[in-house]
Amino acid sequence: MQKILLRLSLFFICSLSLLNAQGKFSGYMFGDYYYNILRDNGTISNSTSASTAPGGTAMQAFQLRRIYLTYDNDISGQFTVRLRLEADQSANASNGKIGTFVKDAYLRWKNIFAGSDLFFGIQPTPAFDAVEAVWAYRSLEKTILDLRGGVDTRDMGISLKGKITQNGMLNYWIMLGNGAGTSKPENDKYKRYYAHVQIKPVENLQATLYFDYKDVPDIQNIYTGKNVDNSALTTAVFLGYDKPSNYKVGVEAFIQSTPNAVKDTVAKTYSTKTAFGFSIFGSYNILPDFTIIARYDNHNPSTDDKGKDPIAVTATVVNGNLSRNYFIAGLSWQVENNVSIIPNILYETYEAPAGQGEPDPSVTARVTVYYIFL
C-alpha cells in the first residue's frame, strides 16, 4: 500500500509540473558514515536510548537519514501550494525498509488580510522556523524541542502567520491543529493550540516566545477513581543573532508541564511532570568555505525527583526521566554551493540512576554529507 501511495504522489506532482510550468521541484538529502567509539553496557546509553547514533560500541555504518522532495506551485497571485515527501530511516515501513510519508501538503492564501497569510493542511508548527534558521545544521541534528519530542514539527490544521507591525519588527503565528503530527489521522475531538511571537528589535537579532496547549482526554486516577487532567502546556523562548557569512549564535529553552503524569505507587498520588531543556549553539566562518560548529544541550525530562525514584515508579520510567547532556562539534566544508562535507563528533552523558554508578557516555564520530539535488 505504501508503495502505491508513493507512486501516486509522485505521479501527481509530476503531472502538476507538466501542466503548469510555474511549478518548481526542489530536493535535498543528507547522510553519514558513523562509528560508535563508546557505549555503556547498561540500560541508559544503549542502542535504543542514545541520541548520538544507533548500535553499541564499535558499531559502524553508512546511513541516509533524510531525503526531501518538494513541489511548490503558484495557483495564482494569491494562492500557492506545497507538497513535500520525506524518506526517513526513522520511519521504517512494515518490511523494515526506509519509509516514505507526506511531510507537507498545504494551501497558502497570501494576504488574506493586510500583512497576514492563511495556511490549511499538513504544515509546519510554529515552534521551529526561527530556531532552525539560526542553527542552520539540521543535517547534524534536530533542534532540542524536536529531538526530545516536545513538539511535532508538523500538524494537520489551519494557521495565520504575519506581521503585527508594518515594519516587520513584531510578528505572530497562531495555529489550530489536530495534535497528531503527521503520523496518523485525527480520531478524537481534542486539539492542539499554538502561538508564537517574534521580535526583531535590530538588524540580525531576534527573540521569540512560543507556547502551545495540547488538549487530551482525562485519565483515571486509580487511587481515587476520578478522572483528572493530563493536557500538556509547552513554553519556549529563543534568542538568536545571525550575521550572514560570518557567524551565528542562538540560545533556546523550554518547559513542558503535564499534570498527573507521575504516578507515585508509594504515596498513591498523581503529580505533575515538568520537563526542562535548553540549547546553546553557534557557528563561525573561519574561511569562505569552512565553518566551525558547536552546540550544547541539557535535557531533564522530569525536574521532580519522584519521577526518578525507583521505589515510587518503575525502572523503565526512571530511565526515561534521567537528564542528559549532549555535545556536538563539527567542521563544515562547503565543497560547492549545493554540497557540504561535515566531519563531526557527538558526545552524550547521562544522569546516574539512584544507587547506581554513573553510566559511560555515548561517543560517536561521523562524516556527514549534505547535498541539494534539485
Descriptors for this entry?
Porin; 374 residues; two-stranded antiparallel ribbon; 16-stranded antiparallel barrel; 4 helices; 18 strands; mainly beta
What does this structure look like?
- The chain is mainly beta and 374 residues long.
- The chain has a single domain, classed as Porin (Beta Barrel), CATH 2.40.160.10.
- 10% of the residues lie in helices and 53% in strands.
- It contains four helices and 18 strands.
- The strands form two sheets. It has a 16-stranded antiparallel β-barrel with strand order 1-2-3-4-5-6-7-8-9-12-13-14-15-16-17-18. A two-stranded antiparallel ribbon has the order 10-11.
- The longest helix has 18 residues.
- The model has no long low-confidence stretch (mean pLDDT 90).
